[in-house]
Amino acid sequence: FNDKGLFNQNFKDIKGIDSLDLRVDSLETFEKFIDKHESWFAKTPSDCGGHGVKRENRSLFSNCTVESIYNSYKNDNYVVVEEEIHQHEEVSKLSLNSVNTLRVITARDENDNISIPFVVSRISIGDSYKDNTSEGGAWCLLSKDGTVEHDYFSNVPILKTFSENPYTGFKFKNFKFPFFEEAKNLCQAAALRCDNHLIGWDVAITKNGPCIIEANDSPGPALMQAPNQLENGYGRLNELESALKISLHN
Fold first, then answer.
1. Taking a C-beta distance cutoff of 8 angstroms, is the pair 141, 85 a contact?
2. How much is the pLDDT for 135?
3. Which residues face 105 on adjacent strands?
4. Are β-strands 102-108 and 80-83 bridged in parallel, bridged antiparallel, or unpaired?
5. Chain centroid to CA 75: how far?
6. Could you tell me the pTM of the whole model?
């Protein structure tokens, strides 16, 4: 999970998008990738929270050779290259530019039963192409059927809630994610390959269904329990314990 290139390699059969790792992929392979895709994302393998990620477009490199781009990425450690995801047109309504991901939390109990106690929607509330909460994005814990029932919450740079996107005016409540059950099923299948008891899967929804971007072994407890989304003011500890079949109390 902590190396995006290795993650892509191990989950390439269900990831759903083209990706390269320039530590092992050749210049010739990279050239074919550039010819195929107009836009892409270049990533460092181990950064998190949206750091070490940049969106690229072929037009930006009109005066560069493919070899110079390839060497530049390798020298700067932007060795993970992925095609740009074109998300479902309904999900695009949530933000101006970003792919609005689902953070699907899978829990494995001591009997290896895998459940999904929480699914969180993450969006950009600015003009960013990234929805990371650590960079000012907002999030909302979804209902069991993938519906937005609360205002979105953000804590960077200050605590704030949003009933609509300030850039587009789109009102969030009652929005329901397409392919929601398919996204959960995909993450449960992926979790069967792992020993981790708790995983946060980042999933995009395209017109053809869900697409796994990456996974996190520290899925962010704040995402499960934003203050404006608590039931009767209580956190989600009991729900998490129920899913894991263990006690997390001191």
1. no
2. 84
3. 118, 200
4. unpaired
5. 26
6. 0.92
